[in-house]
Amino acid sequence: MTEQYQVCSLGDSVEQNQQWDAFVDTVQNGTFFHLSGWKRVIENVYQHPCHYIYATEDQKIVGVLPLVEQKSRLFGHALISTPFCMNGGVAADSEEVMLFLEQQAIEKAHALGVDYLELRYPFARNNPQLTQKCAHSTFGCELAEDHEQILANVKKKQRAVIRHSLKNDLSFRVDNDTSTAYEVYSESVRNLGTPVFPKRYFAALQEEFGERCDVLTVQQNDKALSSVLSFYYKDQVLPFYGGGLFEARASKSNDYMYYQLMCHAKDNKACNYFDFGRSKNDSGAFKYKRSWGMEPIPLHYHFHLVNATELPNLSPNNPKYQFFIKMWQKLPVWLSRRIGPFLSKYLG
Known about the structure:
With about 350 residues, this protein is of the alpha+beta class. It has two domains: about 1-135 and about 300-310, Gcn5-related N-acetyltransferase (GNAT) (Aminopeptidase, 3-Layer(aba) Sandwich); about 135-295, Gcn5-related N-acetyltransferase (GNAT) (Aminopeptidase). It has helices at about 15-25, 35-45, 95-110, 145-150, 155-165, 180-190, 200-210, 250, 255-270, 285-290, 320-330, 335-345; strands at about 5-10, 55, 60-65, 70, 75-80, 90, 115-120, 130-135, 135-140, 170-175, 215-220, 225-235, 235-245, 275-280, 295-300, 300-305. The chain has a seven-stranded mixed β-sheet with strand order 10-11-12-13-14-9-15, with helices on both faces. It has a five-stranded mixed β-sheet with strand order 4-5-7-16-8, covered by helices on one side. Helix 2 (about 35-45) runs antiparallel to helix 7 (about 200-210) and helix 6 (about 180-190) crosses helix 7.
């Protein structure tokens, strides 16, 4: 019976946050994106109200649910678990606890008067109050024991591209240089017609997550061509924000970057799994990840409509955004970095 559970709100108490994270570390469906550090990053960088709640039984945490409120005239009013992350929803071992916290989220969504509630699960849910939408997929693979075997496990055509990149006088470094990562990433997403996040967001992620976050940058003739900010959690490496300059295509530096990240994660972080992250189904990124030999795994995002009459569609494939995307691609990079953060804070 759900009456046995108590719902609590996560505050700023260090002890409370430690207990939250200790639970996420041990629960099977707890992910990096459930960690309490995201609350501090999102509040400090974006000023979005966070409504992190958890369930207790006999004063012990039995389930957590991170929720973030986003409100924009352009993109609507939503309660999301969790924006800027590919996963969210309830982390708990018990179906009963999951249903209990989902009900709490639905009630919170109605109390806030949002357009919709969005719970980003990597698996399907059996809750009649939620509507499922599978528009994204995730990719990943096990990491072999040595560099040669990691390369051998890549699909043949992509393996040839990586071998080519290894002959292109490229080098890489791994450090905390979020500034270079941002410079490369911001130019990359401008070329795709997407508003970039504020620079301080990258720095905040590195500061918050410490050794669980680093940057791998690929250089040629002392010039950074590609860079990726990655997370490490539960023996997995998650390359989360990666990009390359225009010159990256000719040098194959993006391919070199992900291969070297696999090797670095295995050698230095004891990772056993490479999580290539989410991509919009049938997008360019989707096809690129599949070329490595990884098969798509559907992500199950679930919605509960409150004031909205239809499911949201903030995808760049939405025809109403095509003109905006084409115009954005023509902006000078410096200008896209200046005005992008005012829009991207609602597009995570």
